[in-house]
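Work Package 4 report. The design task specified in the project plan requires that, given a folded chain encoded as structure tokens, an amino acid be chosen for each position. We show below one input record used in the internal validation round.
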């Protein structure tokens, strides 16, 4: 995540939701079992009040 200097003043925090991602072990090396994305969603919070 990139944030400009102007937005940095309003930044309040972020979360990375990786709890449902599978391991990168050999058993999960193909997309046959888990075809979804290997990337976790990132949620950033900003306060503009």
């Amino acid at each position: 995540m990139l944030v400009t200097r102007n937005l940095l003043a309003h930044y309040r925090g972020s979360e990375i939701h990786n709890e449902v991602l599978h391991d990168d072990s050999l058993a999960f090396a193909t997309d046959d079992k888990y075809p979804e994305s290997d990337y976790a969603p990132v949620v950033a919070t900003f306060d503009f009040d």
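The chain has one domain: 1-28+42-49. Validation will be extended to a larger panel in the next phase.
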